[in-house]
Amino acid sequence: MNLFSSLFKKKTTTLTLPDSLLIKKLKVVCKKKYFSIYENITIYHHTKNYFIPLLILNPSKGIYLFEYKEWSYDDLKNATISKATNQDSNNKNLAFEKTHQFIKQKFNELTHSDGVPIYNYLLMENLNSDEYEYLDDSFRELLPFNKIMFNNSSEDEIFKKIDNAPSPISPMPNEADIIGNLLVQYLVFSKDNSRNLASKEQIDFIESKIEGTQVLSGPSYSGKTSSILLKAILENLRCKDLKITILEPTVLACDLLKQKLLNIIEYAIIEIDIDSIEIITPIALVNKHLTKLKKPKLEVILYIDEKLMRNNYKVADLIICDDSNLLSFEFIQYLQHLQKASSLILVNEYHDEDAKFIFNKNFQEKSRKIIFKQANQQAKALQIVSKLLQDNKPEDILIVSNNVTKNNLSDDLEFFIKDKAILLDASVNLQNQELENLLICSYAQISSMNSKYIILLDVEEASLNQLEYASHLAYDTTFVLYDIEGENIKILKEKNV
Length: 497
Prior knowledge:
This protein is 34% helix and 20% strand. It is α/β, with parallel strands linked by helices. Strand 9, helix 11 and strand 10 (277-280) form a beta-alpha-beta unit. Helix 2 packs across helix 7 and helix 9 runs parallel beside helix 10. It is elongated.
């Protein structure tokens, strides 16, 4: 009996990876040797997708592909085996050749090379090494002993088999370039457009099943915004009909996230219906609801009319609200009302131990500093700017203040820098912004803004949420300027001792 030909006749379902004893041994080996494990993953390319049960990256040798099979000795003892092509991975066959083709095709289109070496292995939970010796010779030809992990394989035997793979002639790319090119759902674009690989925390969130209302919390620079975008992309790749709405506090923040979305789609060569991932402000969301009720639209102030809370309105299957800690409690209640029968992700910067997902890793290269200065605020701000500009570019500086101080500083700064200071208007689209300048903005406009140096003024006029958010935007130093030490300053000092 030819096992493969007899089993190819009817369609079978994809086999996901169980948490078996053999796989646990393999994971222990990988942990000891610092190999990276990716389980039950899908590679997306153009309009196609390809499922891989287990992929392990050895940073010095290449990619190890593992297929898990439930075949027992009784299944195989009277069978012969022959090579099959163009088969998807399932419990009835092996799909190594098609998997290789798919991976190499993606590498070739993204990197113009075949990528890295790929090695095949088989996980046989229900077969031991002694039983293998009694199988037909055709098995030894297609499935060599040194490519199979048996149920009685020890950790040492497993390592020897995977370590037997030859070392590549050319230097290996880093993990971000290898896995990021294969798995677009884990590819993070930094502010400078460099590509990085999502962390374990981020991947767990991106791959998670979202039901009801769930919270993602983490500090600035922990990758929350990139993760929600990748989450939206993956959900869309999994289900083209899924309607997703991402909320950003300002028009500018929306445009910055849309630009990230387009960069990922263009780089990764995937097809996504852009209209199915809507990125809008909270006011735009409320106005859609108000339009349905034939009520006047909001213009500047976000306000939840009580009639909105009595009316059902299907916005999206999934709403993701970024920087939810900057929004009112009433608006969050409104979102929960809208999504009673759908899903909602609230993203905040609180240290929320009850959050479903918590990001602890900070991706800043260096520890940021916060410096408090009690002095005449405007005079001190001008002095700090003048000193910083000796060794930094104007765009390395962001000043946050109230609207009156914004205008005064804009006039004064004309005498200190060659280029004018820009009064940031976050309600204006990205294409109409001049972000490569020294920027001055209000506390209501700071969402998604960051800079090397942040100078905070008028801190007692800001809400504590806004102040804490603004104080963490710098990736080098935050200067907090004040005339009199008020309550906000005291709280901020206590939290930054």
